[in-house]
Amino acid sequence: MAVLLFEILLNATSMFNHGNVRLPARLDRWLRLVVVTPDMHRVHHSIVRQETDSNFGFNLPWWNRLFGTY
Protein backbone atom coordinates (compact mmCIF):
# COMPACT_ATOMS: atom_id res chain seq x y z
CA MET A 1 0.00 0.00 0.00
CA ALA A 2 2.87 2.39 0.81
CA VAL A 3 4.49 1.81 -2.60
CA LEU A 4 1.18 2.40 -4.38
CA LEU A 5 0.59 5.62 -2.47
CA PHE A 6 4.16 6.77 -3.20
CA GLU A 7 3.75 6.08 -6.94
CA ILE A 8 0.46 7.95 -7.10
CA LEU A 9 1.99 10.95 -5.33
CA LEU A 10 5.13 10.81 -7.46
CA ASN A 11 3.19 10.67 -10.73
CA ALA A 12 0.79 13.42 -9.68
CA THR A 13 3.63 15.78 -8.76
CA SER A 14 5.50 14.86 -11.94
CA MET A 15 2.51 15.75 -14.10
CA PHE A 16 2.08 18.99 -12.15
CA ASN A 17 5.67 20.22 -12.32
CA HIS A 18 6.15 19.13 -15.95
CA GLY A 19 2.85 20.67 -16.97
CA ASN A 20 3.01 23.77 -19.10
CA VAL A 21 0.96 25.72 -16.57
CA ARG A 22 1.40 29.35 -15.56
CA LEU A 23 0.26 29.97 -12.02
CA PRO A 24 -0.42 33.45 -10.68
CA ALA A 25 2.89 34.84 -9.35
CA ARG A 26 1.67 35.11 -5.77
CA LEU A 27 0.36 31.54 -5.72
CA ASP A 28 3.58 30.23 -7.31
CA ARG A 29 5.67 32.07 -4.71
CA TRP A 30 3.77 30.40 -1.85
CA LEU A 31 3.49 26.96 -3.44
CA ARG A 32 7.22 26.70 -4.20
CA LEU A 33 7.88 26.75 -0.45
CA VAL A 34 6.19 23.34 -0.23
CA VAL A 35 6.24 21.72 -3.70
CA VAL A 36 8.17 22.12 -6.95
CA THR A 37 6.08 24.30 -9.24
CA PRO A 38 6.16 24.18 -13.05
CA ASP A 39 7.94 27.55 -13.22
CA MET A 40 10.55 26.41 -10.70
CA HIS A 41 11.18 23.11 -12.52
CA ARG A 42 11.21 24.72 -15.97
CA VAL A 43 14.68 26.15 -15.20
CA HIS A 44 16.00 22.58 -14.89
CA HIS A 45 15.16 21.97 -18.57
CA SER A 46 16.87 25.17 -19.77
CA ILE A 47 19.48 25.11 -22.54
CA VAL A 48 21.70 27.34 -20.36
CA ARG A 49 24.24 25.00 -18.71
CA GLN A 50 24.22 26.80 -15.34
CA GLU A 51 20.44 26.53 -15.13
CA THR A 52 20.34 22.93 -16.34
CA ASP A 53 22.58 21.92 -13.43
CA SER A 54 20.01 23.13 -10.90
CA ASN A 55 16.60 22.37 -9.43
CA PHE A 56 16.92 18.61 -9.15
CA GLY A 57 14.09 18.28 -6.62
CA PHE A 58 11.27 16.27 -8.11
CA ASN A 59 8.46 17.10 -5.75
CA LEU A 60 10.02 18.81 -2.71
CA PRO A 61 12.04 22.02 -3.13
CA TRP A 62 13.83 21.61 0.23
CA TRP A 63 16.57 19.42 -1.25
CA ASN A 64 17.62 22.14 -3.69
CA ARG A 65 17.69 24.72 -0.93
CA LEU A 66 19.63 22.37 1.35
CA PHE A 67 22.28 21.47 -1.24
CA GLY A 68 22.53 24.88 -2.92
CA THR A 69 21.09 23.84 -6.28
CA TYR A 70 18.03 26.11 -6.13
Automatic annotation (TrEMBL):
One Pfam family, short name: FA_hydroxylase
Organism of origin: Halomonas fontilapidosi
GO BP terms: lipid biosynthetic process
Coiled coil: none
UniProt-recorded Gene Ontology molecular function terms: iron ion binding; oxidoreductase activity
Stated name of the protein: Sterol desaturase/sphingolipid hydroxylase (Fatty acid hydroxylase superfamily)
InterPro entries referenced in this protein's UniProt entry, alphabetically: Fatty_acid_hydroxylase
Fatty acid hydroxylase domain location: 3-69
